[in-house]
Records
---
Amino acid sequence: MTEKRVEVCFSPYHIPLYELAKKAVVVIDVYRATSAIVAGMGAGIEKIIPVSTVEEARAYLEKGYKVAAERKGAVVEGFDLGNSPIGFSDPALRGSTVVLTTSNGTKALIKAKSAKEIVVGSFLNQRAVVDYVNQNHDSVMLLAAGWRDRFNLEDTLVCGAMAQDLLSLGWTTDCDSCLGAMHLYDTAKNDIKGFMKNASHTNRLAHLNLDEDIAYCNQKDVFDVVPIYKNNEIVVEHVAKTT
Amino acid sequence: MTEKRVEVCFSPYHIPLYELAKKAVVVIDVYRATSAIVAGMGAGIEKIIPVSTVEEARAYLEKGYKVAAERKGAVVEGFDLGNSPIGFSDPALRGSTVVLTTSNGTKALIKAKSAKEIVVGSFLNQRAVVDYVNQNHDSVMLLAAGWRDRFNLEDTLVCGAMAQDLLSLGWTTDCDSCLGAMHLYDTAKNDIKGFMKNASHTNRLAHLNLDEDIAYCNQKDVFDVVPIYKNNEIVVEHVAKTT
């Protein structure tokens, strides 16, 4: 049996150091882009088109699409939706296509394009993602979207949680980032809100009162959807549980 | 009073994301380049010239210099010395100039060249480095040399230990890498050898029997020297203790 391997990458900036062609990449921007994608698709959005820039997003808006745009944690002027998972859960979006641009998450998705498959991960679909990659892949990179190409704590925690799940299913790792992420998740797991209280995200966005969104994003296994990014759009897979 | 700030960078690959001109950078390659530099200078080496390539090192050898060269954890063929701190402590090297090339550490030093000042750090001179930067700087980046431009655990632990010391002296941080490094150091500090037993360094170099070197590198505050890299060479500063 092939040994299944998981690794963690702390920032999309590091992607050029890796060969992705034979790997699934799980992109994680837990506060809040990938949580919004998971929540939205869990609530019935049919398709999400990630774009890099606000200009591209605006072009879609002018064509009549539903478009979400976030920068610096806030909804960009002229758009109705940002990257709030609660906003993405609006029943009015059921069955629709939504275009999305965010500061870090959508860029990470687009930068991972050379991967064998690109999966959208968050705490909200942690178990579903783990089951999906366990059933379909033998090499996985958990990619933290980070913040402005730098390491961040929140995405690292999700990487650590998913890596622990994969190791418990018999996967291995020889990657220090993965070991570090698992240790940090161990430290944080009983009080993620408390662990995050000194983190840069918390301080940077305190003025936006995102507490409700953050508490939402910290929930585990609310949805069994596995959004897949292919052909420039995100569509959903449902999976059976491994355990 | 100016607020003093510390940040941590997990890899020299990330240096382009930072403005270093007003910062001291502490370069850390604890297994083993910067530990060897500290041990060697603590034992009386007068000057160390770091070079990037084995070819440059060989050119110095032909000119009659004492030259140390390490690749893949071992002494490069044709050289007498690698990056062993015990080798660097040889009394025969007292008062001499040594040229050094290593896989990660010397490259990190050279890549940090735009910094206000470049300091060589390790567990062996942890307190001396902390006192020195506390007395002479108000903005410090702790730079992990990492492994092949990637995150590694061992250098991160030294970053976390030094960051904790600086915060205890009233410094602040708004950097998630710094918070993460401090958490990891907290997890590891009572048993660094045990913490490192699954790390990539341990597995990669197990065949080289480096246990004695690693145990040496894990010792704290053996030397009060603060090696400074300037004008393409490393020279030593001694410092008075802050506390």
Note: Chain B touches chain A through 28 residues (CB under 8 Å).
---
Amino acid sequence: MDDILIFGHKNPDTDSICSSLVAEKIASNNGWKAKAVRLGNINKETQFILNYLGIDAPPLISKVEDGQSVILVDHNEFSQSVDNIENAKIEAVTDHHRIANFQTSEPLYYTAKPYGCTCTILYEEFKSYSYMKIEKKEAILMLSAIISDTLLFKSPTCTKHDKTAAEELAKIANIDINTYGLDLLKAGTDLSDFSPYELINIDSKDFVKNTFKFRIAQVNTACINDVLKNKDDIKLAISRSISANNLNLSILLITDIINSDSQAIVLGNDTSVFEQTYNIKLIDDMAFLKGVVSRKKQVAPLLLNNID
Amino acid sequence: MDDILIFGHKNPDTDSICSSLVAEKIASNNGWKAKAVRLGNINKETQFILNYLGIDAPPLISKVEDGQSVILVDHNEFSQSVDNIENAKIEAVTDHHRIANFQTSEPLYYTAKPYGCTCTILYEEFKSYSYMKIEKKEAILMLSAIISDTLLFKSPTCTKHDKTAAEELAKIANIDINTYGLDLLKAGTDLSDFSPYELINIDSKDFVKNTFKFRIAQVNTACINDVLKNKDDIKLAISRSISANNLNLSILLITDIINSDSQAIVLGNDTSVFEQTYNIKLIDDMAFLKGVVSRKKQVAPLLLNNID
């Protein structure tokens, strides 16, 4: 059997990639044979970090063999995980999301905390091992993920644990959080050379409740109108993905990281769920969500509670 | 809203009761308003501990209100939890079982480790807070649960973490593990005044996979034949519970804690699943399982893997 494989969710964001690399380091320090892999392309924000550190991305995989030992980071829902996850042996999970559609036949390690970032949980785990020292590389990986997931502490998902971890990690990394953080977030908002199809797949997550299947994709930008220039092509790409994946509902959140608002493009046969949830009427398939930046806290659970 | 309620599984065993009391202490030390409750009668083994400490059992509850905040210990499967758990707000879980039929709409604290006992996980949590000191009362609660769940370290579920925790807790409690442990286990094997109906409900857990529903009950004894004197009445009680609960399969494990074997009484329409799993033929609805003492490690996952 191969080494234990460590990976974040499909369409990996910065937290998924950084968490897998940090979890590999912790596992290795503890004598586990484990290696980080990824389930999709590296986004520009994450590439900025890899370039900064001069390291390669973890290798790409698309499925796992029956019985393969795995460690999941930054996700637990099977619909967001590797193909054939149902038949893998899940040894451990470190995550900061709700738990759903997840099950094992045997006991396992599972650490979830309702923090803004998986790397904050890994940071606390690192500190709990008195014999481990956090090196500069891992400090930068964790700090970057926290900045990314909390939008430089502005997201409502940010907790005091995330803030404290980031401050301590910035000291180890000898980095100015604001300067580095703005550079990092800016790198992630360069959407200029994405096709509409690529754009809606940069950071997309599927959710299932009973027979209702929906998708929430999200992109960060410094200017919503820039993204909306391609509105018609983006809507066409979303419509095609709805047919191809039998979705009841598909939402693209275009999040303004300067003003902390989102423009939502909402399509599918069941957009009424969205309209009821936010008590608004879609106009031209769109709605402006004032103060909404967090899929995890301000969108997904509200929709899930409105689906029977 | 009431305080946060902390409880173990239905038909609480020693670990469920001790974990809820210890988790109440940790929560209170951390400034949470939380109180331990229980979902069923106290068994004789647990009563021995409560008497030893001179403390009362946590209050009994049977259901929770919509939106009630809860902390689950020693279980996660909704079928083993309080009535209306689906509509409670689960704030945290500390557990050492597989995860299944569990879900939330929001992120939460979840700590699972594949240890022999939930109290070993709580012990490690206690130690992780540098500002908390383990008092004698909590040391005895945790030590007792570890002795109970690992059958004095003889169960295959016992890990080095359980052993280490028990040794350190015995020092704090100033207790000889073997003397106290045998007294404790012996208290739990006094089945003399249980009716057959009560016997099969002392420590019973339901499992569901797809549409297949089965139950595994377990009693500890120093002499299997003593229990089998009432075999026919026990079988009748099991048959009635199968009809009343629409079970495909119901198993009573009568576990010999001296020799570490179990006699299984197996009834239901789908006993073939059991026979296939252990590659044996039931005789008079019974099978002797040499070396089997752990429902969690040696029975439940094997059956679950054999159900389509």
Note: The beta strands of chain A are 4-7, 34-36, 69-73, 89-95, 109-112, 204-209, 212-221, 249-256, 261-267, 286-289.
